[in-house]
Amino acid sequence: MTSEILKKEIQEFINANLNTDVAQLAFKKNPFPEIDFAVILNQIAAKSKAKDKLPTWFTANNIIYPGKISVEQTSSEKTALYKTNIVSGVSLIDLTGGFGVDDYFFASKIKSVTHCEINPELSEIVRHNFEQLNCKNIECYTGDSLETLQSLNQKWDWIYIDPSRRNDVKGKVFMLKDCLPNVPENLDFYFEKSDAILIKTAPILDISAGLSELKNVKAIHIVALENEVKELLWELHKDYSGEVTLKTANITKGTIDTFEFVMNQESVFPEYSLPKKYLFEPNSAIMKSGGFDAVSVSYNIAKLHKHSHLYTSNEVVAFPGRIFEITASFPYNKTEMKNYMSGKQFNITTRNFPETVENIRKKWKIKDGGNLYSFFTTDENNNKIVLICAKIN
């Protein structure tokens, strides 16, 4: 970390160029020859990334940013805030501290937070930034987190881990054992230091695969931001051996749509039906959860087909996803397509359907966009159907 980046004139230059193309800026002469221009350009690129994702950092003075990749990979403030609803107690240690976004928010609820980071430069940056943010209850340690756990020799109310995938396992199926730190290998040791562990993983991790590698899982949180799944949070409690609860959350502007259910419940029997007046499409967090039968039963809405994951009802219900009014329903064939859709403009979604959106557009010359929505799917009788809809929520 260089203190020269904090010079008033350099900070003013960074702020003045936040909307400038960094690639184009790189061809210009460095106005500050005493510092590597690449360092300044990185600050511009990283701070630009932080504008919407990390507004607390973006609006604070004298913040230093690590590489743009670190900013891209860190939690957003909104998902970090969600995590504060999971943890409790007075002490938490983060074994993979990174840029420190999660820890900043943990510190608003937990009395003492410990930030571990193996990268010395990043650790120094984070320590500096916490000072600028006036966050006084986070202690930063540089080095291997396993060694830090051993040397501090205490118990925490929570351990938080965000393992990163090793570079030498590209192309393989995502497994926790292929990440650093290796959580499955170290789990018994972690439980010596805390009775509660929260693990953040990328949404690419298969839920059943994660469960096969971990033990004592009490809940799995699937967190989406504006209908894009951002992270899975695995809540582990020492000696827990009961049912696993899946909790979905879709964070949107001003609200959080939540839905939860117990995995592998044998008493869940959904209703099936042909299309009724309204169509319901679950948000991405529910789609990732696989709780399709539980959604049908919980909201008393019928499924169109076992594998279609679309729901229908004659009544509008408060639903965690998109809601449409069905204005037309017809079998997928040449005559009906020419009558309803050929050459027109529609938003297209396919669910349990043998053709891709791209192929459908090309075959029937359908333009993208507009206010009309169409769903190509399969009904309970295994017939291929098309639903023309108007979005109401």
From TrEMBL:
Organism: Flavobacterium seoulense
CDD domains, per database record: AdoMet_MTases
THUMP-like domain segment(s): 321-391
Residue runs in coiled coils: none
Gene3D superfamilies (alphabetical): Methyltransferase PG1098, N-terminal domain, Vaccinia Virus protein VP39
Residue span(s) of domain PG-1098 ferredoxin-like: 278-320
Protein name per the record: Uncharacterized protein
Pfam families per the UniProt record, alphabetical: PG_1098_Fer, Thump_like
